[in-house]
Structure formats: C-alpha cells, structure tokens
Here is the input.
Amino acid sequence: MIYTIPSFHNPAGVSQGAQRRLEILAIAQQARILVLEDDPYGLLGFDGEVPRAMRADDADGVIYLGSFSKTIASGLRVGWAVAPHGVREKLVLAAESAVLCPSNFAQLTISEYLATQPWRQQIKVFRELYRERRDALLDSLQAMMPEGTTWTIPAGGFYSWLTLPNGLDATAMLPRAIAALVAYVPGTGFYVDGQGRQNLRLSYCYPEPDRIREGVRRLAAVVEGELELANTFGTTSGLHAAEGSSVPAPDLR
Ligand SMILES: Cc1ncc(COP(=O)(O)O)c(C=O)c1O
Here is the structure.
C-alpha cells in the first residue's frame, strides 16, 4: 500500500500537483497495490480551490480518509473512509474489534452540526483565519531568520517545514528553544531512520498572529545562538544533552 497526504502535507506543508497524483495512481495500478489517501486538510486551501482527490480518478484503487478534526472539532475525533467495497467490509470489522463502536454522541453531534449549521461558511472563515496566520509566519521568518535557513510555503493546512543552516541540529536545539518559550517538532519525529535532524515542523494553526511573530523572534534568536556555537565547534549535534536526554541542561532558565 502507498500511504500519502497529497494536499497540504503534515509535516511538509506541500501538495502534490495534479500530474504527480496521476503518476502515483498509475504506479499503484501497475504494481496492483492500494493507495491510502489521507486528506484531513483538503478543504483548508488558501486559494479556495479544493484539490481534486486522488480517489476521484481511481475509485477501486484508493481508500480515502476524511476527518472533521480540522474543520469542526478535533476533540470529537470523527472522520470517514471511502473505500472499495471489499476493503470497507474489512474496515468495519477492524473498527468493531478495536473500539466496538466509535462514540455515538460524537457522531450524532457532527451529524446535527452538518444538518443545521452553515459549515461551508465556517470553513471559509477558517481558511481566512489560517491564511492570516500562515502569512504572519512566513513574513516573520523572512524578516528574522538567519541566512541559510529555508522553509516551505504552504498553500493550505497548518504547517511549514523548516530547514536549519548547515551544521545545526533541530533535536539538539529543542531544549534551548523550550527555555526561550518557543516550541516545535524536530524533523526526526517524522522519519523512522533518524533523518530530519536539520529540519523542524512549525505549526501556525493555533496561535494568533502576534504570538506567531513573537515565537519566530524567539526561535530566530535561538538559531542565531546555535549558529555561533556551530561556528565555534563545527556542529551543535551532541553539544547540549547526553544521549537519550531531552530535558534542558541545568544552565537553562
Ligand atoms: C495527516 C493527518 N492524518 C490524520 C490526522 C488525524 O485525524 P483524526 O483526528 O481524524 O484522527 C492528522 C492530524 O493531526 C493528520 O495530520
């Protein structure tokens, strides 16, 4: 099976173009494997266009997963799957054996909301809200991040994927960032093999623009500090904490 998040990827903040989607479908068809299209952010594009789902081009080869977590309420944890018949039956069996029945209360709450509330309008409001926060993030990264730092420009969703200047290590830097009261998810959390040390995920979905700007200001200062260390010692990997420890060193307030 090919697992993919084609629209507004978590954590990369990028999307697959229409042509690439078709190419992936063709590869999967040729190899006779299913595609799992995970699409919790598809409705949250900033240009208002909802990207064409891969499933729309291959109903038999794609399992589509949607979620209300990003558009209505994350706490309810209700989503949906659109799957070929045989897969759907197995999914129902698997769900029954795992949780017996997803919360009826949560499902009825979503059902009532969809039936009685202007949810399409609400999604438009969310798009504007997240676009404003995305812009606050990108503008302040542009203004404050030291040279050599790069990041993706998301056209929707919640995340940008940042690459630190050469020699810096996002995992080793995290305790200093937390001490400066700014947090991120180190890139290694998204790989199984230790890649991603130079990367980190920034999420702009929750904080308001002012706090995003302040967060970037603090993060930029931490990166500057790391760069000074790297310029002195060559790298910052392993400089801060002992292997296995992820708490700030005692000198950090
Ligand atoms: C790519 C992706 N899939 C699924 C989920 C979770 O969705 P749900 O809350 O419906 O389980 C998330 C949320 O963080 C996500 O980023």
The helical segments are 18-31, 85-99, 104-116, 119-144, 170-179, 209-233.
